[in-house]
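Marked as duplicate of an earlier ticket. Keeping the data here for the record.
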Amino acid sequence: MVPYVRERFQKLGWDMDLFWLPKRVRSKGTDEIAFETFDWRVYAGHPVVDKYIQTYRDYLWWTRKQVRESYDLIHAHHPIAALSMKSLFPDTPVIATVHSSFERELVLNGRIAPDGPEERFLTRLYGEMERKLDRILTVSQSFKRYLSGYLRDPDRVIVIPNGYDEKRFRPVQHNNPVPQLITVCRLVPAKGLDVLLKACAELKRRGSPFMLHVIGDGPIRQDLEHLARELNVYEDTIFYGYMLHPEQFMPFFDIFVLPSRAEAFGSVFAEAALCWLALVGTDVGGIAEQIEHGKNGLLVPVDDVTALADALQQVMEDPALRQRLAKAAYDKAKKTYSLKRVILQLKELYLLYVHAQ
């Protein structure tokens, strides 16, 4: 979303730069890192923590090398970027959008232990951001509630849901004789694709024909392909790998499904809605804020194979329901997740801090 935001602001006459840490910059920084709200060294020696701290050092190093101008405002989209910028530009207002929970993703993907040192380190960073930054933003009310457990004054967190440039999305009239299911995500355990494959196996046992299209790549792709073979749905499933612009592909399908185990917002649901697809998702986080069950999509409990199969079968076998849900999802996404709305909200917030200087 960020490049599209920049483009819109530039059209309004705002001079806005986009800055990030390239992947090639690794292990360059040597700064001593210290936080005001906790001692990170208590958690040192754990790979996730050590990598995070080194990335922080690298961000400081790269910023000193590249950024020569002064700015009226800095809007960061990652804790490292936010804390680095505030460290280097203490007199400049810095706000940050927290888009998701890295620690929850790591726990769900089995990379760190729940309530272990890595999770404690990552959640302590929210308090550091609250202390240092001028304002914290996030993308859903659900994620604001999550953050509130780690902040002194959660009421100061502003929720601005993601927005999308409608010109990127072009719904296509089509008639697929066999229902076409599509999912788009990184292939990690947190996305629940194992549950989706098991639900598809149940659909096949019930005699409900389908094709499942899996767009995305990740560390468990081979495991998922193996599971699809075990469940006898490999011939009904296509694994495409990574795709740069899936929104150009999605309009030709019928149902978007993603049984995530956690989502701060779930941007791909809004994108699928703008492609005029019926939505099936899990009743968690930002997904449940986007989908009103039975009105513009269907929600099922997390890790419930039977419920997911039932929901998919319902929309697969009832074209009228599928069309109604898809239209309602499109209407809501176009109204609620317009990029124009995001620009207006951000402009109001930016001006508040720029005028305060």
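See parent ticket for discussion. Residues 2-163+338-356 form a domain with the Rossmann fold fold (CATH 3.40.50).
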